[in-house]
Amino acid sequence: MSDTVKDQVLAFVRGRYPQVEITESQDIFQLGFVNSLFAMELVMFVEKTFGVTIPNNELRIDNFRSADSMAELVDRLSSAAVAQG
Fold first, then answer.
1. pLDDT (0 to 100) of residue 3
2. What is the mean pLDDT of residues 28-56?
3. How many structural domains are present in the chain?
4. How far apart are CA 19 and CA 48, in angstroms?
5. Do residues 64 and 56 make contact, with C-beta atoms less than 8 angstroms apart?
């Protein structure tokens, strides 16, 4: 699932910044692509696209720095949801 998550996250970010080639491991905050509005859009995109709810304790910048970190977050939240039944 991680590769699919990464691909969809990258497509979303690249859709906003088509002039830049962004890789799955690049820190989009450090590159200056994320402002507070786009950060909230990322949260909503991840929740809606992958059917997860991001709890307040997971709303940390480190979870949204790259496609890799967002894929790890989705995998973790999906695994937790399955474990809870």
1. 82
2. 94
3. 1
4. 26
5. no
